[in-house]
TrEMBL record:
It comes from Chitinimonas viridis. Residues 47-143 form the VTT domain. This is VTT domain-containing protein. InterPro entries: DedA_domain (IPR051311), VTT_dom (IPR032816). PANTHER family: ALKALINE PHOSPHATASE LIKE PROTEIN, INNER MEMBRANE PROTEIN YQAA. Pfam families: VTT_dom. Keywords: Membrane, Transmembrane, Transmembrane helix. The chain crosses the membrane at residues 12-40, 47-70, 101-119.
Length: 146
């Protein structure tokens, strides 16, 4: 069934994984895990590269949500404050950037990244925790192919 993927150069498939992971981490719907699994079934020899590319793409997608929250916080948008859960904001303020280890969670992760930007959490530390959480999630998918 996946024979058509075999002749593709690895760079094409990895670019597709990157784009899928990037878009899946934004508010757009997507399923980068499925794309990654399909690619790895056809090209298991690219497991480490696929892990790196998916982690980077997904992290950059989450950082766009972080950046959007940061931009909106500078504009003082009360509309965003009304949409963010007070409980989630309190939890994020209590745990800080460490809570971004959960940025990989569907729907919740997008909101966490947006709220982290809104709260102006340290960008480098936030990016590190986002990258770590997303890499660990993808590592669980990639491990059987290594």
């Amino acid at each position: 069934m996946l024979d058509w993927l075999d002749p593709l150069p690895a760079s094409y498939g990895l670019a597709g994984i990157f784009i899928s992971a990037l878009l899946s981490a934004t508010l757009l719907p997507g399923n980068s895990e499925l794309a990654l699994l399909l690619w790895l079934q056809a090209r298991p020899d690219t497991a480490w590269s696929a892990l790196a590319v998916a982690s980077l793409g997904n992290t950059l997608g989450s950082l766009t949500s972080f950046w959007l929250g940061l931009r909106l916080s500078h504009k003082g948008s009360d509309a965003l404050t009304a949409k963010l859960s007070p409980r989630a904001l309190c939890w994020l303020q209590r745990h800080g950037s460490t809570s971004l280890l959960l940025a990989w969670l569907p729907l919740i992760g997008d909101a966490l990244c947006l709220a982290a930007g809104w709260l102006r959490l340290p960008p480098m530390r936030s990016a590190l925790y986002i990258l770590l959480g997303k890499t660990l999630r993808y590592l669980l998918i990639v491990l059987p192919f290594i």
